[in-house]
Amino acid sequence: MADKFLGYRRKDGSIGVRNHIAIIPSVFCSAKVAERIAYQVPGSIYFRHPVGCSQVGEDLEITAKTLIQIGKNPNFAGVVVVGLGCERFSPYELASGIASTNKMLETVVIQESGDSISAIQQGTKYAREMQLIASRQQREEADVSELVIGLNCGGSDMTSGLVANPALGLASDKLVAHGGTSILSEITELIGTEDILARRAVNEQVADEIREIIRQTELKLARQTRNSSNPNRTHLISKGNYDGGLSSVVEKALGSMKKSGSAPFSGTLSYGQKADKKGLLLLDSPGHDGEVSTGLVAAGAQIIVFPTGRGTPTGFPGVPVIKITGNPNTYNKMRENIDLNIGEVIAGKSTLEEKGEEIYQEILEVASGKMVKAEILGHDEQFCITRVP
Q1: How many domains are contained in the chain?
Q2: H or E segment at 139?
Q3: End of a domain among 78, 109, 134?
Q4: Residue 326 to residue 130: CA distance in whole angstroms
Q5: Residue 220 to residues 26, 194, 211, 213, 229: CA-CA distances in angstroms?
Q6: Residue in 308, 26, 342 with CA at minimum distance from that of residue 186
Q7: Counting beta carbons within 10 angstroms of the beta carbon of residue 140, is it exposed (0 to 12), middle (13 to 18) or buried (19 or more)?
Q8: Same domain membership, residue 120 and residue 176
Q9: 158 and 125 within one domain
Q10: What is the pLDDT of residue 1?
Q11: pLDDT for position 233
Q12: Which residue has the higher pLDDT, 42 or 228?
């Protein structure tokens, strides 16, 4: 079954690699009720967040778009929207945005139910009914061209740019060559590479978009640090990155961009926007791992591949996060959290090409149902919607 995987076909034609019921609060006030509903229905997950009220303008729009696109992600067979009833972002608006997928969908509003206990009972009933239907669905064969993967990294060290990110780049190239979609992000960690990336654009419009996305991020960083003349300062990278052997944001960027391989960029995406074309895309987002992963899943990623030199256990609710490391010591210390040891290249036990193929095959296996270690251990920390100050 080369270049195929087994997934769950949705009514809108998309394919999921997981079959969860998502419990999504429209506002932070309803998060606990959503959590209690999810706890009572195995196979359901919830999305805790602190937003949905007292937001205006672009900040509110990003929250709305992101929550809607999370609900649309094909890894979720059904969605129960849980609202309070007086929030700025209406639960009915959220449900309406998800409805075009024709997936199972219900809305619970606490103030209309009468109290949180009644809302939990109502939401639990909906989720149980959805789960019963979802449990009958069988996986079916799908082509790799229907996969969307997100590229994210965190806790980087010197081995990330040397082996882990380049190996992932090779896997990404193969996915794109077979018609799939791969999304690069973490714009703060691409500063200084804009001309290199722009040269890989399919046309001048995409090249200009790439340069402008990185330019705007650099301007924002300059305002935040009050250092517009020299954003390449050691203290702008995390302590963990510095301790791991990275000297500056530019050095980190030169390694970070290698996750995208050598394929041409076919387009760019704004935060909260669904991928509307195939190939390699650039997503405009900050460098915070949670905000990046959330943007990638909103863009339609069914799987995230996450190199980490220093090591991190985090995962995303309902979306498998494949952890890889280029550091053999990190793998030996964090075997229960890291899925693949790319550090075997450094140890002389494997080649970069062999590890790129191993990552590609792992993506297909995970797409077909193999659980990653973050899923097994219940890690779901990476859901975090970006904010506009």
Answers
A1: 2
A2: none
A3: 134
A4: 41
A5: 29, 16, 14, 11, 13
A6: 308
A7: exposed
A8: no
A9: no
A10: 52
A11: 44
A12: 42
Report residue 223's pLDDT band, with 50, 70 and 90 as the boundaries.
Answer: confident
Residue 2 has pLDDT above 80, yes or no: no
CB neighbour burial string for 280-298, b if at least 16 within 10 angstroms, e if fewer? bbbbbbbbbbbbbbbbbbb
Are 317 and 362 part of one and the same domain?
A: yes
- The contacts of residue 158 (CB under 8 Å, 6+ apart) are 244, 245, 246, 309
User: Domain containing 130 — which CATH number?
Assistant: 3.40.50
- Share above pLDDT 70 across residues of the chain, in percent, rounded to a whole number: 93
Extract the tokens encoding 348: 């002389």
Quick check: is 113 in a domain?
Answer: yes
Query: Which domain range does residue 323 map to?
Result: 143-376
160 pLDDT tier (thresholds 50, 70, 90): confident
Q: Please give the angle made by the CA atoms of 23, 369 and 124, to the nearest 5 degrees.
A: 20
Give yes or no: residues 111 and 149 share one domain: no
- What are 246-267's pLDDT values in tens digits? 556 667 778 889 999 999 999 9
Residues 87 and 157 in one domain: no
In-domain check, residue 2: no
d(CA 56, CA 354): 49
Residues 175 and 213 in one domain: yes
Express each pLDDT in 101-129 by its tens digit: 999 999 999 999 999 999 999 999 999 99
**Is residue 223 situated within a structural domain?**
yes
What is the Cα–Cα distance from 44 to 38, expressed in whole angstroms? 5
Task: Return d(Cα 108, Cα 71) in angstroms, integer.
Answer: 15
Q: Residues 71, 149: one domain?
A: no
pLDDT confidence band for 235 (50 / 70 / 90) = very low
Domain boundary among 102, 134, 166: 134
Which is more confidently placed, 34 or 157? 34
Residue 215 has pLDDT above 80, yes or no: yes
Q: Is residue 8 part of a domain?
A: no
The amino acid occupying position 119 is: A
Q: Do 237 and 285 sit in the same domain of this protein?
A: yes
Confidence of residue 185 (pLDDT cuts 50, 70, 90): very high
- CA dist 336 and 312 (Å) reads 11
Query: Could you tell me whether strands 4-9 and 140-143 are parallel, antiparallel, or unpaired per DSSP bridges?
Result: antiparallel
